[in-house]
Amino acid sequence: MTSTDPDHDEPAADLLIRPAHDVDAEPLADLFVAAREAAYPAMPHPVHPPHEVRHWFREVLGLEERTVPMPDEREAWVAEADGMIVGYAVLDPAWLDSLYVRPDLTGRGVGSSLLDLVKSLRPGGFGLWVFASNVAAQRFYRRHGLVPVRRTDGAENEEGAPDIELMWPGADPLGAVRRRIDEVDTRLADLLDERALLTAAAQQLKRVGGHAGRDPDREAQIVARMAQRAPDLGEEALARIMHTVISATLDAVQQPEQP
Hints:
This protein has 7 helices and 7 strands, in the order βααβββαβαββααα. By secondary structure, it is an alpha+beta fold.
């Protein structure tokens, strides 16, 4: 999860950005702990105690054998001012794993400078995750050209908190977005096929099948449940979508099977 200085768009002056060194492990861990503490409640408290955070940074910098899988190409960069580390970024081939700024220096352009570096290192684009509650960070990243592309309920992150994936589409933004749409459409086709198979099974169990057996109350419940997960679409749009899906699915499952 990323955090940054949300209220400054210009890169900071008199700032040195360099690759992280072995001796940076301890101050980087201290910065992370301080930044997360200062960010609460916009960001939930981390689940790992400070000694585990220190061990993780030692793994990132190659000082410890890795206990959890991480990309070999993972790299860490630090922002330094007056000989002190004031921010850092850890990035993978396709992801900005984390970006944090010393809490007393937020709003000074440190995060902007680090993000500009990440863009230069990943010209093809990259993604990152932000907690849904971290509105300031979302605002910051969107001002810097990143776009939200996915929401989750947080079931797959350690904190169990709802989060949002943002994407910087890189040098070919339209192409990058279209590639993501193609990936979603592939998953959508698989889900529609699965729904059709389940609909066919349900038809065999219902006393009245086909369009005559449609249940408006159940369809309204489906739409309401989906609207909770896709609030931007809203119930009216989802009702139209699901009416089309259910109608087309019923038409398909009532067709005679091809030899």
